[in-house]
Amino acid sequence: MSEAATATAAADRKPRRLRGHRKGAVTCCVASSARSGVVASSGEDGCLCWFDLRTKDVLFTIEATNKPISSMCFKAGNEDLVYASAGNEILSFDVRMGSQSKPLETYNYNRDEINQIAVSSKGFLAAADDSGDVKIINTIQKCMYKRLREAHTSICSSVQFIPWRPWTAITGGLDSKLAVWDFSKGRTLFSIDYGSPKLQNGSSSSSGQCFNPAFVHSIAVSEEGILGGIHKVCAVARGDGAVDVVDLEYELAPAKSKGTSRMAGLSLSIKNTDVGDGNGNQSQGKRLHLDYMVGGHTAAVSSVAFSAFGEKGKFLVSGGNDSSVKLWDWTKGFSSETNSNGELVLDMNVKKKVNWLCTAPTDSDNLIVCDTSKVVKVYNLP
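That's the Transducin/WD40 repeat-like superfamily protein sequence above. Prediction below.
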């Protein structure tokens, strides 16, 4: 798509506005995979709001806490249960109770403010906090399972489970590190230091590029079996304006053959030559580097998500502090038939800094954006 066509497409896209939060910014959103058109959001007002995109008004609001809610997620396999983090605690609610819902469970294992939570298919709940630690909680036995520590030297901003590896989690932090864990043993399998001189020298630079540190602000992991199961990747939203796509199975291969003890504490991937140079050059195509030189963000990237619409996982959506949302066809960067670093399909100016975004498995109203306002925005993609 040409720049002119992209600009035209972006200009034609007016968001639908969902009003339910009373004040402050909307911090997080999640689209239901079990109930078509249902979206939940959390905010600095301490509320959880439920929307049905087939109607105009908010379905109901749960006054969860008097603290700002930093993150929320559904329980895997049971979207009647939702978890929300506020301060250093995690609360769970039964959605079927509507606005009358009260906390079913409360977990207080984190010592510092929680930045993100995630739930695995096995019932483990992960909470990344400002101390750099990640607490793994067994929600079935309702106890602390493991403490993941020492990989991050600063705030741990993001955590996700890897669905096709049920005992593996991935974390990112404001120390510019990405770490993959065997959380059953509390050990790192490998880590990437985006702040290392070797990786920084592999990134492009120009007068328009953001020169902030390469903090990891958000991580998205592809679902199991997408695109025929060919690619098993994660996307990394970086503070320097770049988005990286990492082939997790390729990175984990040495850990399987050499054992975790030898890989623990590794600060640089042994395949750092696979990092793109910003000009579409990839030695083996195992990492993709989407930065300003290929139409990327000019400020920190705050959120990334794989597409749940259309051919699931084919597109990657990123939002940033430059008030833009970008749609990427990242699969072209992993194709042996193209010499490409991924294609920018759409570039939208959303007027405000993006806090969070997610995608929905519907043909329309399939991109939900949380920005610095109290209103949730909904767009049609692609």
